[in-house]
Structures are given as C-alpha cells and as structure tokens.
Amino acid sequence: MLQAPPDHAAPPLASKDSLYLFTAIVVKRQPLDSDATGVAFRGVWRNLDVATKELRDVHSTLLQAEANRLANLRPHKAMVVLYGVTENPPSLTLECCPGRSLDVALYAPTPVPFDTMTLLFITRGCAIGLKRVHAEHLVLRDMVARNVLLDEYRSPKPTDFGMSRASKFSERVTMSTKLPIK
User: Which residue ranges does the record assign to the Protein kinase domain (predicted)?
Assistant: First the structure.
C-alpha cells in the first residue's frame, strides 16, 4: 500500500486504505497513447518506469472504484501493477508495459511481425490473465485487444478494470453475440 510523502498535505481519495500519489512525484517523460478516455504518459516514479493515464471526464467515484479493484488484486506476473491514483487530474499510475497494447501491435500501419509460437504465447498469456481475474471473483467485461498490454517479453497483461464487476458463485455464465469488432 502506498502512502503519500509527509510533505504533501492532500487527503486520500476515499479512506486511509486508498492508494494515492501526487502528480509532482511522477516525472512524465513522453506521451504513449491517446484515446477517447484519456492520455497515457511514460514516466518515472521511485526509479521505476511507470505509465500514467490521465483520464478525461471521469467522476472521482468511478476512478476510485477502478483503482480499488486493481489494488485488491493479488500480485501476479500476468496482471498489471497499480502503483497509485491521483484525483486532480484524475489519473492511474501503473506498471509500464513497453510492448504497446495488443491492438497496436497487431493492427498498426507497421504491425509487429508475430510468428505462430509468439501468437500462441500471447493467447495463452491472455487466458492466464483472465483466469487470474476470475480467481479474484471479478468479471472483466471489456477484454479486447486495446485493453491488453504487452510487457518487454511480449507477455500480455489485462488492463482497464473500469467496466469490471464482482462475480458471484451462483451466476450463470452467458455469452453475448454482439462483439466490439472494428
């Protein structure tokens, strides 16, 4: 659990158990990506490479809910690490995955050339990540290529827990026939 340094006197987002950082602590170095939800920057925090996503038009309770879901996940190599959140501007600071998102790697104007074994490795890694999420009793409702980050070893890590929700053991599994295909 992260605590703000004592020289910063801002209240936590929700409670003393919340993760919070301050933008002055994360040194932003370069923009990584931009989409309808916000802008991602690569930066450094406590000598770690991090990615900070500044979110647009996000209510603080939604940010808080996503951060709490991520913070409550047990650490695992198939999961992205949350380092902290800020409320102003609303942002999440996560482990930096320099391999880009899976959709960019697959569909960019200059896509990454993947051989069959690498594609199988990525597919297996996505399955392991989803298994981890489900073991934590969460349903990740927006599992698409743009929400899968690749680390430096091309290991996939699911991200964007904004639409996830807690699962119940008694729920039936259903499948939607409407898919977000571009």
Answer: 26-182
